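User: My instructor asked us to take a sequence, write out its structure as C-alpha cells, and then describe one feature of it. I'm not sure where to start. Here is the sequence I was given:
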Amino acid sequence: MSTYFGGNPANMGVVHALPHNTFADLVENLLRVPVILAVTKAQLLAMDKVAAGKAKATDYLVPATFAGNPSPRRTEHALTCPLVFLDIDDADEAKRVLAAGPANLLGDLSAVVYHTARSTPAAPRLRVVVSAENVPAARYADAVNTVAAMMGLSAVTRESQVAVQPMFLPTCFSDDSSDPIIHCHTAGRPLVFDSAAISPLKPSGQGQPTGSIDDDGTVVGGLENLRDTIDGIEPSDVVSALEAIDPDCAMQQWVEIGMGLKHQ
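Assistant: Let's start with the prediction itself. The C-alpha cells for your sequence are:
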C-alpha cells in the first residue's frame, strides 16, 4: 500500500497512490518543486473567489491513505494519515508564527511550511505539513489540534480537520518564481499517535505550546480544554446520559440534548 495519496483538479472526487514512499522523498520531489501558475500574483488577488479558486487549482495531496487505488476521496474509505496539514489563514496568527520562527515552534518534527497562493506580506497565509505515524483517519482532528497547540494557535480552520481534504501543492507565479517554502525539515521525527493520545511533543526554542500540561505530559490548550471542569459532574455522568439517548433521534433533539449537557 502506498504511503501517500493525491489527485488532480480535473477529478476532485478521486485520489490515487503516489510513488513517494518517504516524507523526504515526497518533499524533495513534489513539495519542493512549486507549480507555476498561469497568472501573475496581482491578477490572482484581483479575481473573485470562484475565479481565483480555478486559477490556483493544482495537483493536491490528502492527509489520508486508502485501501483502493484509485479510491473515492471520501472519509469512509480513509485508513490512516501519514500527513497532518494545518492552514493558518488568519493574518495575525500567521505573522506571529513567522516572527517566532516555524523551526522554533515545531522543534524536531519533520515538517514543511509554505506560503499559499493568496499570501501577501500584509496578510500572510501559511500551510503546515507534518509527517505523522499511526494516525487513524477517525482521530485526524486530534492530530491537527496537537500541532496547532504546539504552534500556539487559538483556532483551527474547519477544512484543516478533514482527513480527506485536498491540499494544493506549493505554487509560484508567471512573474514571480520566489520559493514559497519558508521551513523545510525532513530529517526529524514524525508526529506519533498511540492508542491513548497523540504523544506529547515539546517544541524547542521560544515557541512553546499554550495551555497547561496534563499529568501524563499531554498539552491541553484552548482547543481541547474549552472550559474548566464542572464541579459535581464527572465524565461517567455524561456517558450514562448519552447511553440513555436513542442515537436515531431527530437532529433538533440532539442539539437540545447537547445544550442541556453543556448547561449542566
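For the description part of your assignment, you could build on this observation: The first strand starts at residue 5 and ends at 7. Try explaining in your own words what that tells you about the chain.
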